[in-house]
Amino acid sequence: MRCILILLFVLLASPFQALSKSITIKIDAEESKKHKVYMSVFTQSEGFPDQAKKAKRNIVLEPGKQQITIRLKEQTLALSAFIDTNGNKALDKNSLGIPTEPIGFSSNPTLVFSAPDFDSSAIELKETSTVINMKFKTY
């Protein structure tokens, strides 16, 4: 009976595992060795990049943690992140609204006068496992 239950569980769980994909995010920033990284995972444009409450998932990486792997069912996602150099759990900005702490996005878009939109930061998870290097910039 026990073998039947285990076999049934494996058979039922397999299709769901096949639907999910993993992404490993490698943090490419010296500051992350000493400070926490706050990251939001968005699967749609609403709220991207700075409304963490509208994100699919929010992640806090402890100082020194240079990578994380997550699993998602969605095929398209965009990441936004910042390194909290002063420990206040918020992205600090100057009087013009320009971030004063390092920020990064999933596809490492070139930033000129504003934050990127969802489409320019989005990445497609085509393989079962994807690895990206997330670069951070301070302005």
Keywords:
139 residues, disordered N terminus, alpha+beta, eight-stranded mixed sheet, globular
Describe the structure.
The chain is of the alpha+beta class and 139 residues long. Helix content is 16%, strand content 34%. The longest helix is centred in the first third of the chain and has 18 residues, at 2-19. The termini are far apart.
Condensed summary:
The protein is of the alpha+beta class and 139 residues long.
- Spatial gap, N to C terminus: 63 Å
Helical residue percent band? 10-25%
- The average pLDDT score comes to 88
Listing every helix as H and every strand as E from the N terminus to the C terminus, the arrangement reads: HEEEEEEHEE
Largest sheet: 8 strands, mixed
How many strands appear in the DSSP assignment? 8
Q: Point out poorly predicted stretches.
A: 3-8, 10-17
Strand content of the residues, in percent?
25-35%
Nearest-angstrom radius of gyration? 18 Å
Layout of SSEs?
Layout: H1 2-19, E1 21-28, E2 37-42, E3 57-61, E4 67-72, E5 76-83, E6 103-105, H2 118-121, E7 123-124, E8 129-137
Parallel strand pairs: 1-8
Antiparallel strand pairs: 1-4, 2-3, 2-5, 5-6, 5-7, 6-8
